[in-house]
C-alpha cells in the first residue's frame, strides 16, 4: 500500500485579488510562483504561493473573486491551515503580525505552540516552529532565511464523520495515527514537510463554502504510477475517485471522503518551471494552450495585481 509524503497543496476561496497577493506575499513573505486562471472558470484568477520554486508541501493556492460571498468554516473542510517556520522564529512573526495590525492568539496542541490568526477573507491560519523540512530560500521585505515560512507544518481537519475520515487517512493515504489528546487526534505522513495532520475527533456541523474557506486539500504522489496506486485504493474503498485531470503543473485525482472533505491526489512533477523560468516565476499571467488564443479577452476581464512591499499597517 502506498503512503503519501504529506500535503501537496491547499486551495481556498478568497475575495480581493490584490489583497490576497498583499497578504500572502507582502505580509507572510511567500513567493507568488504562478499567476494563472481557474481552468474551469477563466474569468477568475488562480494564484499559487510557496517557497522559491513552489515545491510540493509549500503550495497555498487561491481562487480570488471580488464580491464573492463569505463562507463559514465547519465540517467537511480543512478548518486550519498550519505553516511551519524555523525554530526560534515565532517571536519574529508575532512582531511582524503586530506591525501590520493583525490580531493573533497563542494556543497549544500536542505540546506545540501555535500562533493563530485570520487572513483578510477569514481563513484560519497558524504558524508553528518545526525543525523538519528544508528552509525556504525565498526572502522578502526583511524576512530572512531564518524566519521565512518553510511550507506547511500540516493542517487541522474538521470532519462530519471523524471515524470515517480516520479510516481514509490511515487506509488509502497511508498516514499513521501517532497521538490522541484533549479532543484531538494526530496523524503523520511519511515525509518531513506538511506531514502532521490533526483532526477534531468531535463531529462538526457542516460548513458553508465561500470566501474564507478551504476548497480542498491535496496529498502528494511521487509520480503518475504512485498516483494510480492511490486511485485504485480509493476505488476499492468505494470513494469514487475521478479520472486523472491534467492541471498543467501536476496531475490530479479528486474524491470526497465520508466526512465531507474534498481530497485530491496530486503528482509532484512536472512543477511550476514547466512554462516559465524559475527566476521569473509568477511575473506573467500563464495560460494553458487552449486558452492562449483568448489571452487579450481574459486579461481585460482580470484586475491587474502586483507583488509589492507594504508599509506597516497597510
From TrEMBL:
It comes from the Bacteria. It holds the Pfam family Glyoxalase. InterPro entries: Extradiol_RC_dioxygenase, Glyas_Bleomycin-R_OHBP_Dase, Glyas_Fos-R_dOase_dom, VOC_core. Residues 6-130, 151-268 form the VOC domain. PROSITE patterns: VOC. Gene3D superfamilies: 2,3-Dihydroxybiphenyl 1,2-Dioxygenase, domain 1 (3.10.180.10). SUPFAM superfamilies: Glyoxalase/Bleomycin resistance protein/Dihydroxybiphenyl dioxygenase (SSF54593). This is Glyoxylase family protein.
